[in-house]
């Protein structure tokens, strides 16, 4: 259909919509963790135990919260886009493993797994022309 073929010219606008939507949602998901303080960070950071990292859980929890919050902002802006998308993808791998290890099954881990694939795809596609990185 001609209408579908003509939408290709809006690729960069589509990437902007995707970046802004995902960025806002990551900020909303990460900010409460970031504001939660060291006790919450330690609990989040214990998820790194799923890949054999059991030291300084407070640091890892803070890094996850900061990645989701600041990374969400940078994703939204298209700033340091590919490194941020890689950090967010890694964070989602750990989140998915945490859900699986808690016995939540694939349905509990699916959101994190889906986001991981989205972030990996965005690494390949790039931020589009409506981004700070392209200015």
Describe the overall structure:
With 135 residues, the chain is an all-alpha fold. The chain is 75% helix and 0% strand. The protein contains 6 helices and no strands. The chain is globular and about 55 Å long. The mean pLDDT is 96.
Helix/strand layout:
Layout: H1 2-6, H2 11-35, H3 38-45, H4 57-77, H5 81-101, H6 105-125
The average pLDDT is: 96
Low-confidence stretches: none
Main sheet specs: none
Number of helices, where a helix is a run of at least 4 consecutive DSSP H or I residues: 6
The helix content, as a percent range, equals: over 70%
DSSP E strands, number: 0
Strand content: under 5%
Structural class: mainly alpha
| Euclidean distance between termini CA atoms | 34 Å
What would you call the shape?
A: globular
Query: Radius of gyration, rounded?
Result: 16 Å
Order of helices and strands: HHHHHH
């Amino acid at each position: 259909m001609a209408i579908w073929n003509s939408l290709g010219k809006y690729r960069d606008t589509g990437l902007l919509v995707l970046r802004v939507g995902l960025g806002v949602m990551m900020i909303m998901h990460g900010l409460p963790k970031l504001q939660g303080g060291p006790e919450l960070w330690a609990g989040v950071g214990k998820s790194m135990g799923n890949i054999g990292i059991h030291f300084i859980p407070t640091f890892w929890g803070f890094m996850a919260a900061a990645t989701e919050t600041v990374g969400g902002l940078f994703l939204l802006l298209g700033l340091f886009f590919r490194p941020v998308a890689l950090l967010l993808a890694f964070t989602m791998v750990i989140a998915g493993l945490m859900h699986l290890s808690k016995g939540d099954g694939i349905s509990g881990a699916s959101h994190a797994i889906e986001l991981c694939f989205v972030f990996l795809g965005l690494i390949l596609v790039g931020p589009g022309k409506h981004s700070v990185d392209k200015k």
